[in-house]
Design brief:
The chain is an alpha/beta fold. Helix content is 37%, strand content 13%. The protein is built from 10 helices and 6 strands.
Length: 253
């Protein structure tokens, strides 16, 4: 007990010294905050969290209260491969800036805070899941970026109490063009057949409840293609958990 107390005291002293030398600042701006990994009082209200009521399948928020098992029109018309998808926040505001820095400016220090938001939003997906599976990057994009942002989020989710990460399961068989300017149909065509489970990794996939992890869900085309590959390899169930969801005014997935 004495040793534990000493280690705890040493850790607190170290954090105090670090905060003295490098005072914690808001994730979204340079305003001072009480502890690392927080948003300030000005940035916090700009984050649009996604909560109930929402589509029971894809998590799309509804404007009016609905029964818990209600599905949106898109999921009824075109049922996705995943069992359910959850996102923590709407894409925009400080979250958009944080994600751009995380993905393109080597700000890997942001991953733990972003993963905490995901863990809160995805409790129903994470409970009882066997593994986390990150959406893969094509090797050329990975070489250019040096890391896979989805894998970094998955690792932080696992450290925060989530299921273990099943790494290098999915392969991106071909490099797909950027999807920023594509609509839903264009995105579906763009990623059709782009993913497959590596033959050597089929063992742990078979019969497993998996949670696919990505940073942003737009139309759902990428995560749906990944889920279809995992289910084809024998997964019993695949849920999807992302940090952000692109939601256009007026609804629609």
């Amino acid at each position: 007990m004495l040793k534990g107390a000493m280690r705890k005291g040493a850790g607190a002293a170290g954090r105090f010294l670090l905060d003295f030398l490098l005072p914690p600042v808001c994730l979204g701006c340079d305003q001072g905050v009480d502890a690392p990994g927080l948003l300030c009082a000005a940035c916090w209200p700009q984050v649009a969290f996604i909560g109930a009521p929402h589509c029971a399948c894809c998590g799309l928020p509804f404007e009016l209260p609905v029964p818990a098992e209600t599905r949106c029109g898109a999921c009824i018309a075109h049922p996705p491969a995943f069992a359910r998808a959850r996102s923590a926040v709407r894409y925009g505001g400080p979250i958009r800036d944080l994600l751009l820095r995380f993905k393109h400016a080597d700000r890997l220090d942001l991953a733990p805070a972003l993963a905490r938001l995901m863990a809160q939003a995805g409790r129903d997906c994470l409970d009882g899941a066997d593994y986390l599976v990150p959406v893969p990057l094509h090797w050329r994009r990975r070489l250019f970026r040096r890391y896979n942002q989805s894998a970094e989020l998955a690792r932080c989710l696992a450290r925060a109490g989530g299921p273990p990460v099943l790494a290098d399961v999915l392969a991106r068989r071909r490099a797909t063009p950027a999807q920023g300017r594509l609509g839903r149909i264009g995105r579906l065509r763009n990623v059709a057949g782009a993913f497959a489970v590596k033959p050597a990794r089929r063992g742990p996939v078979a019969g497993a409840h998996l949670v696919l992890v990505d940073d942003v869900m737009t139309t759902g085309a990428t995560v749906d293609a990944c889920c279809r590959a995992l289910l084809a390899a024998g997964a019993a169930r695949v849920d999807v958990l992302t940090l952000a969801r692109v939601i256009h005014d007026g609804g629609g997935a």
